[in-house]
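Dear colleague,

Thank you for sharing your sequence with our group. We've completed the structure prediction you requested, and as agreed, I am returning the results in plain text so they can be pasted directly into your records. Please verify that the sequence below matches your submission; if there's any discrepancy, let me know and we will rerun it promptly.
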Amino acid sequence: MAKGSLVGNIAQDLGLDLKRLKSGKARIYTGDSAEYIELNKERGVLLIKERIDREALCGQTTPCALHFQIILENPIEFYHITAEVTDINDNYPYFSKPETYFEMSESAVNGAKFYIEQAVDLDVGTNDIQSYALSSSEHFALKLHSQADGRKAVEMVLQKPLDREKEEHIALVLTAVDGGDPHLSGTSQIRIKVLDVNDNAPVFTHSVYKATVTENSPKGTVVMRVEASDADQSTNGKIDYSITNTHDGVPETFEINSQNGELRIIGVIDYEKARNYQINVRASDHGGLSDSSKIMIDVLDVNDNTPVINIMSKSAMLSEDIKPGTVVTVINTQDLDSNDNGKVQCFINENYPFALMTTTSNFFSLVTDGDLDRERDSEYNISVTCADEGVPSLSSSVTLSLQISDVNDNAPVFDKSSYEASVQENNTPGLSIFTVRARDADFNQNARVSYILEDSSVNGVPVSSLVSVSADSGVIHAVRSFDYEQIKDFPFRDQNDNAPQVLYPVQSGASVVAEIVPRSADVGYLVTKVVAVDVDSGQNAWLSYKLQKATDRALFEVGLQNGEIRTVRQVTDKDAVKQRLTVVVEDNGQPSRSATVNVNVAVADSFLKCSPTILSVKCYRWRRERMYYKSGANLPVIPYYPPLYADVGGTGTLQHVYNYEVCRTTDPRKSDLKYVRPCSESIISLDTSGAQTLTHAQREKLTSEEFHDQCR
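Please find the predicted structure tokens below.
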């Protein structure tokens, strides 16, 4: 079949959706074998990838089949596929020798048999050799014998005595014909020289000999001995033994002693390559007469193959909150030996929170078998050992390295439940009094600790007017000089007194602004990002995002820690154009404080149709900046990344990164919002006629009315 030919509709046969083939990154796994068939995920069909030569692939083995698996991920699934390769009649029968010579005694009696070398046809079944024909002869006829391997043994039988004085040389043509349509044939010349006086042919003691041999037997090992007798005397009764096989690896593996009939091993006996042999032997006397027999040899398996371990799929990074029973790695084992020698079991010795499960024959899944804790073990090096059941057993091992990613599951802990310190009166303002320390067992950003004073008062005076704390270092400073006669001691502590504040999307009473999702969006498409801040510190400022309500909860999800809203399935034509989501933002204080934000999403057929909405978003961004500039919001310096930031995964809506910093001053009226330009030096504003470029300098000069005109 030509490249690209259809083999079968695998999606239909397995009942798989085409979207599942794409999202699961479906692929074909053939192990070490060549890949003759490929998977078209767009159509869900199997196609010919490379031209298949059945004879090169399987030789005489029937049926000839390709075995492979189809693997899908997220979740991991696999299916076993068997494709049978059927034969066509593309090989001519042929004889290894173009001419065969016989010397025959004129005293040979009717019925004398002369063994003729079989023809070889690389095709199988009906396309193999079906018949032989001998050119017209009054002396000879052909006789065919069916053998155990399905081939035809060919003998030329004397049916009329020879007379050397009348005809000393005879020339015949032997034709082998296969059963294909049309028939293909091959020929060999038979030349006979008629001799005098040898009237007895050799005769084997058995028509079939049987023997067994163990694989890996050393060269020179004697397998058995055959024997034939001849009633003639002198040279007419002397017998020579020979092997007549011309294929199947017999001539390279065995030889027979022409004088005594001993069969010896001269090559490598490998059970995995050949489990049995049929050796055709001939006993010939010097008068041209012969007899034939065959030796049937069974090869005994030896456990000489170590199991091979193949990693089919692996999750290199695991979140520490992954659920027990989750498949993290799938391995396949192969052992070329047979029976118990080829049965493989795999296991892990270490006392790890993982288990190795058997799925189907020779396939094993490594699954989580307990809770993971990155703070206890940040990585695992799991040694998987696979051993066969042979005696002695052979095994191989592979090490799986699994990294555990952090989840913010540990609260900061002070190294003391309380601190005491003293300071002499009349101290210098700004004096460092003492340092508090808190530790967080999590990693990176999850372990970052900041300090803030709880809002309280001492004798009617705010504690913040007495002492201050460094948010990063925990150093307690005196804000002013103390007077012992006025205040002798005072307590203070941390607190959570601020609810989260949503920076984006901006909530206002104006017309609704929608984020845009094209109908061509794939799974994981970045829709927008909810951005919120909490002016508290420590765990009181840790924020989490949850999807409270949605028009279609099966279409969107929100990142617990980053607020990213992404699609969880393929967007279809049946999805509503207008989608509304409500996201709850909570801090980690005790008690927890929260805020909600509504996000409007428009499902559009193309990006250009969304231009008016994009313009609205830009207007709102400008208005938001103006609002924060004029407001007295007492916010800390917080980096802000609106939804139109660059998505590293390449699934975002726009490619520019916009950074905002809200700067707090002692005077609320002078609080400012600083705009950090993206890689591009300008802001793009779209209108119906094309694109306008507004430089950063021009943008700063625009009044509210002017910028409103630009947006229109």
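Summary note from our side: Confidence is low (pLDDT under 50) at residues 609-712.

Kind regards,
the structure core
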